[in-house]
Amino acid sequence: MSSVQKLAAAGEAGGQSLPDVSRPLLEVRDLTVSFNAPHGLVKAVNGVSFSVSPRERVGIVGESGSGKSVTAQALLGLLPTATVTGQILFDGRDILSMPKSDLRALRGWDISYIFQDPLSALDPVRTIGDQISQPLRLRGVHQKEAKTRAIQMLAKVGIREPARRYKDYPHQFSGGMRQRVMIAMALIGEPRLVIADEPTTALDVRVQAQVIDLLYSLTEEQGTAVVFITHDLGILAGFADRMMVMYAGRVMEAAETDELYYRSINPYTLGLLQSLPRIDGPIPLTLTAIGGRPPSPSNLPGGCSFHPRCRYAQDICTAERPPLETPENGTHPSACHFANWLTEEPGVLR
Ligand SMILES: Nc1ncnc2c1ncn2[C@@H]1O[C@H](COP(=O)(O)OP(=O)(O)OP(=O)(O)O)[C@@H](O)[C@H]1O
Ligand SMILES: [Mg+2]
Predict the structure, then answer these.
(1) In what order do the strands lie in the sheet with 57-61?
(2) Rounded to the nearest 10 degrees, what angle do helices 175-187 and 143-156 cross at?
(3) How far is CA 196 from its chain centroid?
(4) Is residue 144 classed exposed, middle or buried when 0-12, 13-18 and 19+ CB atoms within 10 A define those classes?
(5) Which of 70, 200, 250 to probe ligand 1 with, by most ligand atoms within 8 A of CB?
(6) Which residue in 176, 263, 172, 244 sits closest to 212, CA to CA?
(7) Conformation bin of residue 145: beta by default, left when phi > 0, alpha when psi is -120 to 50
(8) Sheet holding 26-37, edge to edge
(9) Is ligand 1 within 6 A of the CB of residue 55?
(10) 82-135 pLDDT, tens per residue?
């Protein structure tokens, strides 16, 4: 029993109500999301389960269309036109069956979202200061206090002359600065979970690294859990504690970050890893180690969804969908019929 579990057990025995810190902050069970589109049923998410502990940073990785954003939007109850099934528990409360007013409160207080494109997320006709201080004012913090804290937060995210820039409008900020403002807005209310959906994709590589470092240090300081969504496995190396690789709306592999980088047991993850440019090797002629394109979610192939693009596919891969399982001698789950073999022969596909 960990010290945290012991503490919780002692609290229960003594009749005190200590917060249950051993429970995951977020627990997603068998989530499915589908849309009724004119061209047929779009199965965007097909049975995704994962959890995020308090203070933990989890990366969700996958190519375009793999269902990352739809998963994130489902977590916040932002999909009114979709059919969503499964369970999404935040601190033990089911988001999918929660009254709308509770959900709004949760989004305002406990969970915040950092969007890919800050320009469309920021209101162009309101000052930066007005927008950053809003979460505090909504909680009844006095205007003067909210302004002081917003200016402090602007300074924290690296905006120079924050008191002056407080009065500026979004168009007066560069792309990197606007993304810093989004981080300030997301964190000023000290939420328990931040969901960042490709927050750095629009930025150049140097600014991208700075913004990720910033998000790391601020969430570390505040003890905030993070779900970080990206199509780029490389940028999560120093950031995420754990990673989940998605393909065609399913989890292909989930592991601690180092495990996934060095001991992946899934051909799709291995393909993504091989697509990464390396500083310790020759420059690859092509960055595309995986041929073809992901399938359309309205026409998913039978068996393993990845089989049409997998160099190692066998008959069983076209016939049966592999469950997400930890192989006998493995350390983490992979949805591949040959995960066991890959565990025995690490690096065989590299
Ligand atoms: N409102 C909707 N109606 C119909 N289909 C949708 C809707 N929203 C998303 N989809 C489809 O669901 C699939 C998953 O989309 P999603 O946005 O989650 O992908 P993603 O992994 O975030 O990709 P990207 O890296 O491009 O952001 C896509 O095929 C997308 O076209
Ligand atoms: Mg997306």
Answers:
(1) 111-114, 193-197, 225-230, 57-61, 242-247, 250-256
(2) 130
(3) 6
(4) exposed
(5) 70
(6) 176
(7) alpha
(8) 40-52, 26-37, 83-90, 93-94
(9) no
(10) 999 999 999 999 999 999 999 988 987 899 998 877 777 889 999 999 999 988
Q: Which two tokens stand for residue 120?
A: 């469309």
For 220, phi then psi, to 5°, come to -65, -45
Q: Which atom of ligand 1 is nearest to the CA of 298?
A: 29
- With 0.85 as the threshold, say if the pTM is over it: yes
- Check: CB of residue 327 under 8 Å from CB of residue 254: no
Give the Cα separation of 340 and 319 in Å (integer): 18
Instruction: Tell me, using a 6 A CB cutoff, whether residue 107 lines ligand 1.
Output: no
Tell me if 79 CB under 6 Å of ligand 1: no
What would the two tokens of residue 221 be?
A: 């300081």
pLDDT in tens, 33-52: 999 998 889 999 999 999 99
For ligand 2, the distance from its centroid to the CA atom of residue 68, given in whole angstroms, is 6
Q: For ligand 1, what atom is nearest to the CA of residue 72?
A: 18
Ligand 1 pocket, residue 250 CB under 6 Å:
no
Ligand 1 site, residue 242, Cβ cutoff 6 A: no
* Nearest Cα residue to atom 18 of ligand 1: 67
